[in-house]
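Q: what does this look like with zinc ion bound?
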Amino acid sequence: MSLNITLIKAFQDNYIFAFQTGNGRTVIVDPGDAKPVIEYLNEHNLRCDIILLTHHHHDHIGGVAALVKKYGAEVWGPATETKRIPGMDKHLKDGQTYALDDSSFNVMHTPGHTLGHICLYFKENEILFCGDTLFSLGCGRVFEGTMEQMHNSLQRLAVLPDETSVYCAHEYTAANARFAYHIAEGKEQEHLEKVMADIAETRTNDMPTIPSVLAFEKEHNPFLKAKGATEFEKIRRAKDAF
Ligand code: ZN
Ligand code: FE
């Protein structure tokens, strides 16, 4: 079964995701801003029924209060961030599976960007909502966790099936590709030249580079390819200074 995911643009480079369950309920993932979500819902004659959250940063939860007020939406978010995100209706725990009408998802606790960050994996639909943990050709900054935690979190995502569609919460791909190219060598640099040209073309038309596909990330994302936490840390620190 396929889930039809809509990308809603917010702020400079955030994506908020919307989809419908088989029962016609509308789910919104990481609504950092209510305005573009309400515009989208109005345009399609929908309401917001369920909100899914990956972590507590404002650009992911800033629109929650307004959507709850307007639609009475249920809020499902990381059990590990209940102190940072007050008022959640369901506390999502690592390793648990949650039914969402006719679909279901697994929760993967992926600390690093924040300590309580979770990713939502819809196995049957081959879809991953990874918030600010994994970006296309990049990864989130390590704000709260350790470099080792972030490395382990990314490695957990790396064992998901190759076909998995990766829904990252930011359009950072072009800048990430420039950094990946900068640290690549030989054949991989040639690959990335082609990749950068493709990304540039997509972005010229203001089209999203998201979703990515996990196979592509495993092949070209330097943060996923890092062998061990020490190498990961070296690359992450180089990117922070790039
Ligand atoms: Zn964040
Ligand atoms: Fe973010």
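The chain has one domain: 6-240. The longest strand covers residues 14-20.
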